[in-house]
């Protein structure tokens, strides 16, 4: 490790003068004095005075050519965190811009970064951007991290690992996002060195060998290009460019290669041609392609289509001298600066006068707007600006669980939203909330970086009031669902009570009704799906309890009457007639003859066990049998019985002539059957259709009747009908 150079104030001021000549640097000098006093007596692990750290950070920021408030903030960035200084003091002495940057950096350092970072790196980066408000906060944080990485050797091993991983996963991608390529590369290589020291050492050695071996080749190609540029009258320079170690390492891993297979990577070292104008870039591309054969699919035009972080360049890979592949990048000086320094390059180089003037003002919005203005010159800057804008003014807040998990919620979200984001039950029983250890009201507006703790109690229930302030649709729908269910329970309770009261007036209870076999039928008669819906309807007042009780009583009476009739008929002893029904091995089973097929004694029949209403008897050929549950079908047979009579329906087709009805009636009466109903239709083809409902003793009786009728002249057909 090289011995760290201790930065002096004059180094910082000189650096500032190099890009802001004549700038008034009193703000920076004042910050230096203040920081020196605040950190007096503090020592870093390296043994150096603590002040060396903020000095180095400020110097890095000056190397990034940032504005004066940012450099002042770099000097002050640890004063609030590590000394007795308050943010109010900073605000009072250095103004809002400096104070806001210092405050932002301090807040970031308070974030509870834990082992969870790995899983949520993307959210964490977004959160940093969201917290920052001002990108300068991120830039100071990056400079701070860079210096800490440069001096990481003084840290104990476990801290080195944690900090390096965090740098690799959070800060290097942020630097890349902002287009600050040199910073990204340095952060990655430092992290790589601490995380995988053995791989780092071996790879560095191997890369050095490869570079040494290719040096002559590169020089040869370089000379050819330089000569050609001169010939064409293009002013430009050609530099050898070495890929940084971590990107080589990543490339090896991506391609499942070991360090020994390094020779397979052709772009470890390449060339970069830097010219003045955009049109010269394409000229140079033409020259390169005329000298060496390009490899198809390897040409990329990032000038016409810049990368999201504003990077612009032409890339091509050609088969150079000796058949060896090499990558050549072509860009302008401006593009080269942007590629190295990212956004900082853009606003400083092009607008240094405005920057100097406005650095006294506050407001990151203005700063961003200027950046957007600059971007209009670029051909396709939309992606970058959009993504930057989203990150700077997100519609989201990022908050922590006490365990360090990050939850992303919409702006304006409350502890109740957070509770439902954890779990529905946590939401339902969310009684109190603590933010950063302090109790807050449930409608508190969560801020990015808050650590939120929900206190649940079993008796807590969702409240309708919560709907007034929750922001997430998840919380809203869960609360509504709960309230709806709760209301239904209330309605049901009300319905039950009203019904019970009404039933008691007729010496019944609701329980008796619910147990009664007719209850479902009653519900359906009011067009409800089931009894619960009926009860709910009473609760809602759609139906009075009187209506229900009345219909129940009426229906029950009617049913009882029917049953009685059947039983009476079966038992009537004086009525001569032969048969009755039985199921083997049972007595006193209640039978109903099905209305659909009207079976007669002597018919082949099948019984169907109904729910609570005895057995319904169908003719064996009744089409309705197919629709019934076969499990409930049962054998029944006719037995010599007590001489009941049964109804049967027949259908007689005749020619249409006078006296037919009289003839048929006569034939029926001759068999001692009663005609209960008769009707007649004439058809267009001069035929008549008679329907008779008859009272008969059994199937044999009916067969006799039908035979007699068939004998009548003019009768075409006689059929027994099902219903
Ligand atoms: Mn620091």
UniProtKB/TrEMBL annotation:
CDD domains: ACT_RelA-SpoT (cd04876), HDc (cd00077), NT_Rel-Spo_like (cd05399), TGS_RSH (cd01668)
Domain of life: Bacteria
Pfam families membership: ACT_4, HD_4, RelA_AH_RIS, RelA_SpoT, TGS
SUPFAM superfamilies, per the entry: ACT-like, HD-domain/PDEase-like, Nucleotidyltransferase, TGS-like
An example Gene Ontology molecular-function term: GTP diphosphokinase activity
Gene3D superfamilies in UniProt: 3.10.20.30, 3.30.70.260, Beta Polymerase, domain 2, Hypothetical protein af1432
Domain TGS as annotated: residue spans: 395-456
Domain HD: 50-149
Function noted in UniProt: In eubacteria ppGpp (guanosine 3'-diphosphate 5'-diphosphate) is a mediator of the stringent response that coordinates a variety of cellular activities in response to changes in nutritional abundance.
Similarity comment text for this entry: Belongs to the relA/spoT family.
Record protein name field: Bifunctional (P)ppGpp synthetase/guanosine-3',5'-bis(Diphosphate) 3'-pyrophosphohydrolase
Organism: Thermodesulfatator atlanticus
